[in-house]
Amino acid sequence: MSVLIYTLRTGCRRLHGGLRLFPRAIPHSCKMATDSHWLSAADREQAVMELNAAGWVTVDGRDAIFKELHFKSFNQAFGFMSRVALRAERLNHHPEWFNVYNKVQITLTTHDCGGLSKRDVQLAKFIDNILLSM
User: Fold this and answer.
1) Widest Cα–Cα separation across the chain
2) What is the model's pLDDT at position 7?
3) Which of 6, 16, 26, 93 is the most interior residue, by most CB within 10 Å?
4) What is the pLDDT of residue 85?
5) Long-range contacts of range 108-113, CB-CB < 8 Å, 24 or more positions apart?
6) How remote is the C-alpha of 4 from its chain's centroid?
7) What angle do CA 114, 118, 123 make, to 5 degrees?
8) Distance (Å, rounded) from C-alpha 56 to C-alpha 50?
């Protein structure tokens, strides 16, 4: 009973042995948390047009963009992914990606809003700039 009361008061849960688990912070609603990341219809259309010109394609059935990249070696592909991972961590916006040897497939979308956002456009442009420098 005292564990249940403690849980209700503090929001954490005690496990056997006295360990405590704290729940993840509950994010604000998507609209409140990411207003600054939404794309207007005109901005979205312009961004998608620019990204299409750079080789990104829209994903059927999802509000997302996709690009497949081929590198000379696994090391080059992994180095590229490491650079993107560092930026993604700084932006707190992480890609969906898949890697086999020298191939990297990237899908960008903002899950908490269910579609493309300014963060996706920003990360896609960063990715394209890395590719230009390789």
Assistant:
1) 62
2) 34
3) 93
4) 95
5) 108/64, 108/65, 108/66, 109/59, 109/62, 109/63, 109/64, 109/65, 110/34, 110/37, 112/27, 112/30, 112/33, 112/34, 113/30, 113/34, 113/37, 113/38
6) 36
7) 100
8) 9
DSSP 8-state assignment for residue 59: P
- Cα dist. 33→37, 38, 80, 132 in Å? 9, 10, 30, 33
8 Å CB contact between 95 and 119? no
Q: Give dist(CA 124, CA 105) in Å, integer.
A: 12
Question: What percentage of the chain exceeds 70 in pLDDT?
Answer: 73
d(CA 65, CA 99): 17
pLDDT digits 0-9 by tens, 6-37:
333 444 444 444 544 444 333 333 444 445 57
Q: From CA 42, how far away is CA 81, in angstroms rounded?
A: 31
| Residue range 42-59: mean pLDDT, rounded | 94
Which position has the higher pLDDT, 83 or 38? 83
